[in-house]
Q: What sequence folds into this?
């Protein structure tokens, strides 16, 4: 097999595309020939040694992928050789082959392309868990999505619209604004050119958004929290801008608002049955055309450094996908 190996997490430049021995198939696992893998922001952080999880060295990055089962460990039920699957495995996806716990694999309907499947689980599960479970989003409510043109942002936009909400997309460029309008955003704010608070006040007639979906953090967070509606829910998804904001908690008191943490990975571990039901619902939404991953570019797996450079430059709309020939 071939894989991108990280022996020293000092950045993307330290990754090497190497021939490696095939991984050993452990009990309870599946061997999968990787057809496609997508980039998520943690993939960049982990090779820079900035992520909360520090895997032992050396490691193969790549959290999310799709492919075909080539071997099933003894005793594993529900999977067969030749079956199409997707998985959010945490590591090892930027390779031609991977072994994963069968519990992490999601069977794919025939209509689900490998490219879409590789870009699906992390962003759509995170966004559905955030908006529908943690945020208790109701039809007719207004959602502000920060970083709305990114991977989780485009997923959140589609899910919020499917749930009957009004969506305000906040982005950093006119090109990203146009992409969000094409996805169905009801209003768009370019926060590099417009004042976020002033625009939110005008767009909501002074009420503010009922739900704020924030995967960005940084200097946008306080302005968004100050604008939230009475009984609003502020969803903390991540910190793509790089800094963790310190929010004045008196704002939660004054607005009767909730500051809600969202950690889909831990939810999936602690509540696997609820997570499985959610993934099944999302797969049904995909089949019905309610949601579809926004794929920015599809590149060969060997072009991982170029994909990382595009992500680091914040030029990506949706997800970048890498494929094995």
A:
């Amino acid at each position: 097999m071939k894989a991108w190996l990280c022996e020293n997490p000092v950045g993307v430049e330290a990754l090497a595309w190497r021939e490696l021995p095939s991984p050993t198939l452990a009990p309870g696992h599946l061997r999968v020939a990787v057809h496609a893998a997508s980039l998520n922001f943690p993939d960049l952080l982990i090779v820079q040694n900035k992520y909360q999880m520090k895997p032992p060295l050396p490691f193969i990055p790549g959290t999310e992928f799709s492919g075909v089962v080539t071997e099933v460990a003894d005793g594993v039920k529900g999977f067969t050789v030749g079956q199409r699957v997707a998985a959010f495995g945490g590591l090892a996806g930027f390779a031609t082959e991977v072994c994963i716990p069968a519990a992490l694999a999601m069977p794919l309907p025939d209509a689900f392309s490998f490219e879409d499947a590789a870009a699906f689980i992390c962003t759509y599960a995170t966004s559905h868990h955030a908006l529908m479970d943690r945020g208790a989003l109701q039809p007719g409510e207004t959602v502000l999505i920060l970083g709305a043109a990114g991977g989780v942002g485009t997923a959140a936009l589609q899910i919020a619209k499917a749930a009957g909400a009004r969506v305000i997309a906040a982005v950093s460029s006119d090109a990203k604004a146009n992409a969000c309008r094409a996805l169905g955003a009801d209003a768009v704010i370019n926060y590099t050119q417009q004042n976020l608070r002033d625009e939110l006040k005008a767009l909501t007639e002074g009420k503010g958004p009922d739900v704020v979906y924030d995967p960005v953090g940084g200097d946008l967070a306080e302005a968004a929290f100050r604008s939230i509606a009475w009984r609003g829910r502020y969803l903390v998804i991540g910190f793509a801008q790089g800094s963790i904001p310190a929010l004045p908690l008196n704002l939660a008191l004054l607005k009767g608002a909730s500051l809600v943490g969202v950690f889909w990975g831990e939810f999936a571990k602690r509540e696997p049955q609820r997570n499985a039901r959610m993934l099944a619902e999302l797969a049904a939404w995909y089949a019905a055309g309610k949601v579809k991953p926004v794929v920015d570019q599809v590149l060969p797996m060997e072009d991982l450094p170029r994909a990382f450079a595009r992500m680091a430059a914040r030029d990506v709309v949706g997800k970048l996908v890498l494929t094995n020939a």
Observations:
- The first strand starts at residue 2 and ends at 5.
